Amino acid sequence: MSMSIWRAGAAALALVGLVNGGQALAAGPCSPSPAHEAFDVQGLKSQLMVTALSCGVQDKYNNFVGKFRPKLAAEEHVLNGYFSTTYGRNAQRQHDDYITQLANVQSERGLQAGTAFCQQHVSMFDEVQELESTADLSNYAQAKDIIQPASYLTCTAPNHPAAAPARTRAPARRTVRS
């Protein structure tokens, strides 16, 4: 198997693991990514942007961004760190893909809801304007049912029993000649 095929297979498995994060829980102990709060806040920001564009309330979105600009910038910095650590040289591409997929899945949900979408989501702007602190924003983002394109979990390998003692003598080599 060539190295590029192996890498493609490994990448596909990693993607399946991200998308099916719930199934990964059975494989070993998993917890939300250290960047979980940043993903929640980014999801909320994206949901509000999609709502603003779909429902013609861009001024409400601009007020939200103005009020929470430092928090939004800090969480963006955390996401940059997450993608840099996780994807190395491909960090920017992966981050851009995440932002695009996030907006796409949220827009698709809005299209499925039809005219009810604006009735259901514009009130979020009034709710976030009532928040008093950046901690309130984080808690709000975590409590809302914000759709994400993938689950970002950090999983550790399951504990294995102690390995058998190493052999003291190497096995004999056999050479077959034709």
From TrEMBL:
Biased composition regions of type Low complexity, renumbered to the chain: 159-169
Annotated region described as Disordered, given as residue ranges: 159-178
Keyword Signal annotated: yes
Keywords: Signal
Signal sequence, renumbered to the chain: 1-26
Name assigned to this protein: Uncharacterized protein
Native source species: Komagataeibacter sucrofermentans
